[in-house]
Design a protein that fits this description.
It is a single chain. By secondary structure, this protein is an all-alpha fold. The protein contains one helix and no strands. It is elongated and about 40 Å long.
């Protein structure tokens, strides 16, 4: 994603939701961690 405010590439993730029946199981955290690992921010 290009943005004139950043000199390097960056990503933006919006609106990550977990359905009510699946909340409280850490699924949102797991999904977000997986995304971050896939783009190589953390290992």
């Amino acid at each position: 994603m290009h943005n004139d405010l950043h000199d390097r590439h960056f990503g933006l993730l919006e609106d990550l939701f977990v359905e009510d029946d699946y909340r409280g199981q850490g699924l949102g955290s797991k999904l977000l961690k997986e995304v971050i690992e896939k783009v190589g921010i953390i290992r």
